[in-house]
Amino acid sequence: MGRYVLRRLVLTAATVVAVSFLAFLAFSPLDPTGPMVLDTTPHGHAARQFVLAHYHLKDDPVSRWWHWATGVLHHGFGNTVSTDVAAGFPIRLRSEGQPIGPTLWHSMGITAALVGGALLLVLIGSSLLGTSSARRQRFRMDVSWRFLAYLGAAVPTFLIGDLLQRSLVGAASQTDVWLENGPPQGGAVDWVRHLTVPAVALALGLVGVYARFLRSSVIVELGQPYVVVARAKGLSERRVVHRHALRAALAPLVSLLSLEMGAVLGASLAADGVFHSGGLASTFLAALGDADPFELTAIVTVAAVLVCLFSFAGEALAGALDPRIGRA
After folding, report:
1. What is the distance between the alpha carbons of residues 97 and 294, in angstroms, rounded to a whole number?
2. Residue 193 · residue 177 · CB < 8 Å
3. Which of 197, 216, 210, 201 is nearest to 122 (CA)?
4. Which residues 6+ apart lie within 8 Å of 94 measured at CB?
5. Which of 283, 302, 304, 275 is nearest to 157 (CA)?
6. Cα distance from N-terminal residue to C-terminal residue, the chain
7. Which CATH number fits domain 101-327: 1.10.3720.10, 3.30.43.10, 3.40.50.300, 3.40.50.720?
8. Mean pLDDT highest for which of 39-48, 149-158, 230-239?
9. For the segment 282-320, what is each residue's pLDDT rounded down to a tens digit?
10. DSSP annotation of 97
11. Closest CA to 293 of 12, 3, 25
C-alpha cells in the first residue's frame, strides 16, 4: 500500500507540473499590460517597462515558466499583474499586485465542496435508479427510469442550472426562503444554502449517465454464483440486491467516476458560472478578462490538483467497496 501511495504521489506531481507547463505556454501570448499602452507619457512608458521587467514578461515562455514555478515553491502563487496595471496612471514604480493564493484557495474550496456534494448526490441517485431498474427489468418503472436517465444525460449542465436558477433560486429571492444564489460567505450552513442548488444541477446531468451504467452492473452481479448462494440461504431479495449486488456494482462505478473527474470538474465550472458561486470558474473568468497569464496558470494548476485528489479518493473508495481491488 505504501508503494502504491508513493507511486501515485509521484504521478500526481508529474501531472501537475506538466499541466502547469502546458497551461503557461497556452497563456503566454496574453499581454496584461495592454491597458498601459493608453498612457503615452514618459512616466506611463516607464511604468509599463517596469511591469514587463518585474514580471519577466519579456523573457521567453520557458524561462518565464521556470521563474514562475520556482517562485511558487518559495513564495506561493505570487501576485496579480492586473492590479499593477489597473493602479492608475501614472503608477508608482513598485509592485502593487495582490496575492493570488488567498483568493485561489478560497475558490478551490468552493469548487471542491460543489464537486463533492454533487458526487454524493450522484452516488445516491444512481444507486436508487440503477437498483430499481435492475430489479424490474422491462417493466414500466424500468422504462420510466431509463427515459429520465436519457433525458438527464442529454440536457447540458448549464441549461439544467439555468432552469433551476429560474425556478428555485428565483422563487427563493422573492419569498426569502432558505436557498440562495451567489458565493458562500462563512459557516457550514451558509455554504450549504449557496451550494445546494448548484450541486443538484451538476448531479442531475451526471445521474442519468451513471444510473444506466450501474443498472447494467447490478444486472450482471445478480447473475453471479454468490448471489445464487445468498438467495439459497434464505436472504430477502432486498438484502441480496443492496448488501451484495449493489456493493459489488458500485466499485466499477466509483472507478469510472475517478477516471472522468476532468469532465466532472468541467461540468462543475459550468454550474459555478451559472450560479455565480465564486468557485474556480468565476476566478478564471476574472483572470481571463485581465489577461493575467500567471493567475490563469495558477487556476489551471489548482484544478489539476483537484482532479488528482478526487481520482485518488475514488480509487481508495473502490478498493474499500471491493476487497479484490484493494488487494490488487
Report:
1. 12
2. no
3. 210
4. none
5. 275
6. 10
7. 1.10.3720.10
8. 230-239
9. 888 888 877 778 888 888 988 888 888 888 888 777 777
10. P
11. 25
- B/e letters for 222-238, b = 16+ CB within 10 Å, e = fewer, are beeeebeebeeeeeeee
CA distances in angstroms from 253 to 147, 246, 327, listed in the order given:
20, 10, 18
- The helix/strand/coil state of 79 is strand
Of the candidates 98, 80, 111, 318, which has an alpha carbon nearest to the alpha carbon of residue 199?
111
Has residue 5 got a pLDDT over 80? Answer: no
Q: Which three cell numbers stand for residue 255?
A: 472507478
Tell me the pLDDT of the chain averaged across its residues.
Answer: 77
The full DSSP string for 198-224 is HHHHHHHHHHHHHHHHHHHHHHHHHTS
Residue with cell 481571463: 288
Residue 79: strand pairing partners? 99
Cis (ω within 30 of 0) for the bond into 90?
yes
90: confidence class by pLDDT, cuts 50, 70, 90 = very low
Would you state the cell numbers that stand for residue 312, as one nine-digit string?
A: 485518488
**Per the structure block, which three cell numbers stand in for 47?**
511604468
The Cα 123–Cα 84 span in angstroms is 46
The vertex-43 CA angle with 38 and 46, nearest 5°, equals 90
Is the sign of the CA dihedral 122, 127, 131, 134 positive or negative?
Answer: positive
Rounded Cα–Cα distance for residues 220 and 76 (Å): 49
Cell of 68: 514562475
Residue 179 banded pLDDT, cuts 50, 70, 90: low
* Residue 282 CB coordination number (10 Å): 20
Cell numbers representing residue 286 in the block? 476574472
- Domain spans of the chain, in order of start: 2-85, 101-327
List of residues 6+ apart from 136 with CB closer than 8 A: 142
- Its pTM stands at 0.76
